[in-house]
Amino acid sequence: GDSVTQMEGPVTLSEEAFLTINCTYTATGYPSLFWYVQYPGEGLQLLLKATKADDKGSNKGFEATYRKETTSFHLEKGSVQVSDSAVYFCALSGQGGSEKLVFGKGTKLTVNP
Amino acid sequence: GAVVSQHPSRVICKSGTSVKIECRSLDFQATTMFWYRQFPKQSLMLMATSNEGSKATYEQGVEKDKFLINHASLTLSTLTVTSAHPEDSSFYICSATTSGAEAYNEQFFGPGTRLTVL
């Protein structure tokens, strides 16, 4: 079945450092790919998404590019802030607009001043 | 907009009792709601999908008689864990979506409910 693998955390960075959180997937067909963020005490929020190969999702300085050849959707940010401290989840939904989401295990990011 | 609440946020119960968790969409009508379960350091695992006014669709391996889901209105779904046991202790998260023209309908997530069964 479909699955998502993301890098183990926790990740600790200093403010203004570069961030990469790796995500790879296994799926049949052409899934849509997502990054969700969960701030402390809050529900998951959609951070960005990409629905076809070579699409780049971006939001709040975060970017991820849908790479079908490497089945990857790595999350990057050039300069992290303390307010970016959260848990980040990579996810996919199946081909055909299926609403079912398959999540990775999540990566906890802590940014220190 | 698109806020989903869950109640309670934490619950502790004795083994053998039943626990009800509520999921509400506060500012939109949720045609579909999802219930997930998350173990420590694990992924969110989809338990079931419910559409308003119809029976929930459970994922393989999820006991429908143990995890009762009711989606009686467009703003409320409930998950009842019946005869809870310690192995049911987990973090339960709901999400809601509304119908639209896009191929993918964004899910809006609640903050989760921590269940501890003693």
3D structure, described in words:
- The complex is a heterodimer of chains A (113) and B (118).
- Chain A is mostly beta strands and 113 residues long.
- Chain A is 0% helix and 50% strand.
- Chain A contains no helices and twelve strands.
- Chain A has strands spanning 3-6, 11-14, 19-21, 23-26, 32-38, 45-50, 56-59, 62-65, 75-77, 86-93, 101-103, 107-112.
- In chain A, strands 2, 5, 6, 10, 11 and 12 form a six-stranded mixed sheet that branches. Chain A has a four-stranded antiparallel sheet with strand order 3-9-8-7, with no helix packed on it. In chain A, strands 1-4 form a two-stranded antiparallel sheet.
- In chain A, strand 10 and strand 11 form a beta hairpin.
- Chain A starts with a strand and ends with a strand.
- In chain B, the strands form two sheets. In chain B, strands 2, 4, 5, 6, 9, 10 and 11 form a seven-stranded mixed sheet that branches. A four-stranded antiparallel sheet of chain B has the order 1-3-8-7, with no helix packed on it.
- In chain B, a hairpin with a 2-residue loop joins strand 7 (67-73) and strand 8 (76-81).
- Chain B starts with a strand and ends with a strand.
- The model of chain B has no long low-confidence stretch (mean pLDDT 90).
